Write the structure tokens for this entry.
Amino acid sequence: MTTTPNYGLTLTLHTDPPLDDDNVRDIGRRVTDNIDGARTVMTSHGQGADDGAHLASWTVLAGSTDARGVAAALAELHRVALDAVHALGVMRVAVEELSATSDAELTRKARVRERAQLVGVDEFCEMLARPGEAPLSRSRFYELVKATPGFPEPVRPGRWTRHQAEAAAAELRDRPGPGRPSRSGEVDTE
């Protein structure tokens, strides 16, 4: 039995204005509906690290037996995504990436992204600091972990997902605690 090799087809666009979660997911569904045998593997959006531009990205997994099939699927991904973005009224669009990657390479890249999305204790301490304050010390961090019901469990020893850390930091950052000023300016000594 011969299996068809899979390819990850990726399109990343700069958009102005930015797309929201629902728009990005909807465009992913439209793309997979238009490419035979494709399934959405990953969608994402946010700001680019280098220039702060708003990015939206779709990666779909598609099978093909030859280069023409891959090229046709890439062209369809590009066409469908751009049509959908323009239908939302987004006229300022630039292609950042349009690529085909073997499924083995796609898996490797996903693992790298996953590792990059983990936060260690030091970065978590920085996230918990109030604007203009120094990061929490490691000892204060571990006190907070013990004293806070529902504090997120690490996914690996000393590692949390960025999402977990950002959510916990947003909730805890402004909460008064030992040695921290309350909103009224009084120091909480308990």
